[in-house]
Amino acid sequence: MIRKRTTGKVDTIIGTETVVKGDFRVVGGFRLDGQIEGKIEITEMFLAGPRALLKGEVRCASALIAGRIEGNIFASETVELQRGAQLFGNITCRALVIQPGCFFEGNCSMVRGDSGQPDVPPSQD
Q: 107 burial class (0-12, 13-18, 19+ CB within 10 angstroms)?
């Protein structure tokens, strides 16, 4: 079985002083250092820096969270909560890593993904 791996390359950055309201899709990797209110669909890795705030849902291949997320994360691969991360929502992923010093209030559903297809349910839009 061949599985597409994310590269960790960041293609789009929302800076610390930027506030975005609305839903959007990112092709490639995405780093959030500012604030977003809305749904985000990312084809590769989602990185939320220590000052990041997301109020909404994120769908991605993998996620590395150091900031605050108020919403659900759907990842077809790994979600990692780094020291200082705050997550108020549910996680659906293949693997979950929680570092010491995080806050996680929600549930986690693990998926298998033996078919090689993304396990993330489609958006309800």
A: exposed
SS3 label, residue 46: strand
**pLDDT tens column, 97-118:** 999 999 999 999 999 865 444 4
Q: Which residues pair with 79 in a beta bridge?
A: 63, 96
- Between CA 118 and CA 75 the distance in angstroms is 9
The model carries a pTM of: 0.83
For residue 99, give the nearest of 109, 113, 87 by alpha carbon.
Answer: 87
**HSE on the CB side for 46, CA within 13 Å?**
30
12-36 burial code (b ≥16 CB/10 A, e <16): eebeeeeeeeeeeebeebbbbbbbb
